[in-house]
Amino acid sequence: MHALRRDVFYAHEGAVRRRHLQAQTWCLTIATNAITTWTAEYLGMAVDQLRGRGRCVDEELLAHISPAHSDNIGLFGTITVDVDHELAQLGPTGHRPLRQPPAAG
Fold this sequence. Notes:
Number of strands: 0
Strand content: under 5%
Order of helices and strands: HHHH
Structural class: mainly alpha
Largest sheet: none
Shape: globular
Distance between the termini: 38 Å
Radius of gyration: 17 Å
């Protein structure tokens, strides 16, 4: 979690743009909690999908996977989102579809 918080903090060039320490901490906490919640949700969906296809996913291995990483998060630059397009992609459960691995060729 500390590494994720540091990554989120440095994405803004090490500057938190809130006057009070409590507001700075609160903003950073909300951002890191959102990232870990999103990542944990989609990791769980991926595991369920793999198991649904008959793949063995070892619980002992899963115990070592943390949702507190930032490799899958775009922390730098400006991100433009077409909200209507993104909402149209949501499935019946309210989630975006998982990416599918390329077909073995």
